[in-house]
Amino acid sequence: MQPKANEDISIAHIQAVKVRYEADLLKKANVVGVGIGLRMRQGRPVGGPALIVNVTHKVPLEQLHPTDRIPDMLDGVRVWVEAIGEVKAQR
């Protein structure tokens, strides 16, 4: 069982976790980006800062290969998965 995420966790710690795991997260199915931010629900922030993993679309957990599953927490930092669609370069 992973420890509960600390909502007062420092941005520096979250940045270090992002650096440590970003390359591995980007190798997972449907992942198109990794950032730091607040989870928003109905236009309001939910909890403190977290690692945000952007995916093209969400897939039911049972349909994902175990190596493509994104953990809820990494080194004590909460991880949120956000579906953002296909990423395309803009002019």
Keywords:
globular, 91 residues, alpha+beta, GMP Synthetase, Chain A, domain 3, 4 strands
Explain this structure.
- The chain is an alpha+beta fold.
- It has one domain: 2-Layer Sandwich (GMP Synthetase, Chain A, domain 3), CATH 3.30.300.
- It is built from 1 helix and 4 strands, in the order αββββ.
- It has a 4-stranded mixed beta sheet with strand order 1-2-4-3.
- The longest helix is centred in the N-terminal third of the chain and has 16 residues, at 11-26.
- The radius of gyration is 13 Å and the shape is globular.
The helix content, as a percent range, equals: 10-25%
Strand order of the largest sheet: 1-2-4-3
What is the terminal separation in angstroms? 46 Å
Number of helices: 1
Gyration radius from CA atoms, angstroms: 13 Å
Unreliable stretches (pLDDT < 50, length at least 5) are none
